[in-house]
Amino acid sequence: MFNKFKKITKGLCALSVISLATVGNAQAQLGDAGAILRAGAEDANTLMESYLAPYTKGFGAGLNTGWFNTAKAHPTLGFDISLNVSAAVIPGSDQIFDVSQLALQQLEVVSGGSETPTVAGDKSTNTEVGIFATNPQNGNREEVARFGLPGGSGFPYAPAPMIQASLGIVKDTDISLRYIPEFTAPVVDAGVGLFGVGVKHGINQWLPGGKLLPVDLSVQIGYNKFNANANFNVDPEEGSDIYNPYNASQWDGQGIELETTATTYNAIVGKTVPFVSVYGGIGFETSKTSLKTPGAYPVTSFNPNYNPNSTDPETREKRIESVEGPIDLEIKDNNSMRAFAGLRFSLAVFRISASYTISNYSTFNVGVGFGLR
Q: Which of 192, 244, 254, 372 is 20 to 30 Å from the Cα of 322, by its Cα?
């Protein structure tokens, strides 16, 4: 029995890693988004938030699903272990953003349209932005450099896989744990880790005549914390008019660090009969993502030492400056009500479940696993 348990658990872990491959397109887009960091700290934060917010919000919504597949809590020592995969649907309005509507300090659209895809939008874009600054030689505001904004992933969903184990304790109460130890997932070239804890409690026992009701009533709370990190590779601009005082090693250590926390509170009603459980309910959810970019990043600026009559590289018209950790964002989802419905099929010890949640970012969830009692 123990060896069988180990094999099933390993299989669920493998499925979890495979499911992470569905975000491979998004991970590739993060590498392209590194160009945004050429804009300097203030404008880069503004652009990066608009570009990435749909995925961070959708991912938080996905983490808030899949906590339960029945309204009834496990009996004492009853348990199940499952792999759940959620996919939040990114609304069309959040698949694009208008650069001209952002409070940018140095950036202006110089080519293409001002509307460009977010990370969840179309893969192609023709939007280029220019970095403008005051030229110390003449006092005029001029373009220093330009870069193209990244396209989207072409995948308007935010997937969120998780492995979960639930155990019944006492008084119609069960606890759930989600855990993926921090590891490097080669399919997405990123380090990931997940921890979550949830509690569900049956309330029929506390209601007058509650045990006679034809349905099960329960309340549930769940909390998740997800960490991820990936590498960036933003090289300095090159050109005969640009002075770069830094060695290539200056740009080592570039990366992105992401932490998402998500919390949900739910009231559930449902019924379990042989082989099938159905449930529905309402709840409240919230999520928050912090985003940082450690390392040094190159920014092109006008050179105050510019001398057109000199051959000294240090007197070229432009120069590369180094900016440390330009991105430091906190992206919050709007706290929102949610309504959900789902069902679970059981065959011996095996379980298959599915649910749908209506919220700011509506979410599908499917789960496979096994359990006893």
A: 192
